[in-house]
Amino acid sequence: MSALSSGAVEPSAPDEPDVKPVAAEAFMRQIVDEYRRPLHRFLTRLLLGQQDLAEDLVQETFLRAWRNAEALAADPPKVAPWLYTVARRVAIDALRARQARPPEVSLPDLNRIADTDDEMDRVVSVHAVRLALGRISQEHREVLVEMYYRGASVAEAAARLGIPEGTVKSRAYYAVRALHAAMGSTESS
After folding, report:
1. Do 141 and 89 belong together in one domain?
2. From CA 123, how far away is CA 135, in angstroms rounded?
C-alpha cells in the first residue's frame, strides 16, 4: 500500500465542498488500481474458480468502499483488511443466496427441436430405412416388410411366409436389431 500508507489523500475541511468529492474520487481510484487484481484473485480462490462471480463481487466490494470512502481515507493502514473482510463477507452472502434459490436449469432451444410434422425428416428417415433394409438378410427383410409395412400380425406373417409363428417372432426381434445396426452405419456414411 505504497501511496495509501503515506497519507497523501487527506479528508478535506468542511468549508471546502468542491475538494471533498474530488479527493474521495482520487482516493477510490487509488484503491481500485492497487487492489482490483489482488481482490479478484482472492475472491476467485474463495469461489472455487468462478471468475465471473468474483468480478461481480469485486465491484460490490468497491461500491461499499465508495460508500465508506471518508472512513477509509481517515485511516489508510486499515484499507486492505477492510477490503478483504468486506470481499469475504460479500462472497459468503452471494453463496448463501445461490443456495437459497433453486438451481438454474437450462432449457433446450425450442427453435432447434425438430417439428413432428417435418416432411424432410420423414423423407430422410424413409430413405435411411430403405438403405438399411438392403443391408440385412432376405429372411429378416421379409418379416419386417410383412409386419411393419403391411401391418400383418404374427399369425398372418407366418401364414404368408410359410414359416412357424415362433420363427416370425424370433426373426422380427433379430431383424429389428439388424436394422438398427444397419441404420447406424448408414447415418455415418
Report:
1. no
2. 19
Q: Are 179 and 133 in contact (CB under 8 A)?
A: yes
Choose between 185 and 68: higher pLDDT. Answer: 68
Dihedral sign of CA atoms 92, 98, 101, 103 in order: negative
Domain shared by 84 and 14, yes or no = yes
Judged by DSSP in three states, 17 sits in: coil
The answer to whether the predicted template modeling score (pTM) of the entire model surpasses 0.70 is no
> Rounded to the nearest 10 degrees, how much is the dihedral formed by the CA atoms of 151, 153, 154, 159?
-90
For residues 88 and 136, membership in a common domain is answered with no
Domain around 21 = 2-100
Confidence bin at 101 (pLDDT 50/70/90): confident
